[in-house]
């Protein structure tokens, strides 16, 4: 059973749930829930949690559900953060770096090409390095940033999960980074929206591989 | 006690908002304005000013990308 966290201001939780249900079972997790027992994985979906006041993701990290997600992740449970979910995970310190306003200062909504890196952990072993995925982005603050020394360490440690393909970087992300994992490799965050790429009818089903990777991971003990 | 917290993008971090403001100024006849950086100001009242730095680091600012200054009003 995969839980999809729903904050006030989330807007992609139902698409994320629908994506989860193509590969397994899922349910929504309201932001006030603190008991994640029975869940094998968690999705932090896109949207504008708590209005994105102050900074995107800054308030959501203090929600009761995020405290539970923090414990879930520490026990090795797989967590997938998408767009606002990625911002929340960075603000919560579960993932390195921060997401800044797009370099062009415009809201972006378009299909992009991603290239999967050879990266650590349970997601990394489920996703083939070099795979190209066609997945949409839609965000205002998607410019990934971390200091150079931290980026060097992330690259050396196999922590970069996805990069925008050459010439496809839509938002000015440093080193074309679109997604990263935590040190243990069980928490993955990315700006593009795999839940909007799960059916060829809408242009691509390349996003399904991430939900399959999530669904096939074992439950934490 | 009243306090003002000034939050600004760290040096070296590209601030596209500041750049956009800077580019708009000559069109209005304001020449010679450079290095515009846009931050934000948080005003608050607190019973315990000793906790302000901690509060800024944990919520009001993201220390990875922003610097902050606390100004207490006497």
3D structure, described in words:
The complex is a heterodimer of chains A (221) and B (74). Chain A has 221 residues and is of the alpha/beta class. Chain A has a single domain (2-215), classed as Class I glutamine amidotransferase (GATase) domain (Rossmann fold). Chain A is 24% helix and 25% strand. Chain A has 6 helices and 11 strands. The two termini of chain A are 14 Å apart. With 74 residues, chain B is α+β, with helices and mostly antiparallel strands. Chain B has a single domain (2-72), classed as Phosphoribosylformylglycinamidine synthase subunit PurS (Mth169, Chain: A), CATH 3.30.1280. Chain B has 2 helices and 3 strands; from the N terminus they run E-H-E-H-E. Chain B has helices at residues 16-24, 52-60, and strands at 2-9, 40-45, 66-72. Chain B is elongated, with a radius of gyration of 15 Å. The model of chain B has no long low-confidence stretch (mean pLDDT 95). The A-B interface holds A 54-55, 58, 62, 91, 97-98, 100-105, 145-147, 172 and B 13-14, 16-17, 20, 59-60, 62, 64-65.
Layout of strands and helices, then pairs:
The complex is a heterodimer of chains A (221) and B (74).
Chain A: E1 2-6, H1 13-23, E2 26-30, E3 41-44, H2 64-74, E4 79-82, H3 84-91, E5 98-100, E6 108-116, H4 121-126, E7 132-139, E8 143-145, H5 148-156, E9 160-164, E10 177-181, E11 187-190, H6 208-215
Parallel strand pairs in A: 1-2, 1-3, 3-4, 4-11
Antiparallel strand pairs in A: 5-8, 6-7, 6-9, 9-10, 10-11
Helix pairs in contact in A: 1-6
Chain B: E1 2-9, H1 16-24, E2 40-45, H2 52-60, E3 66-72
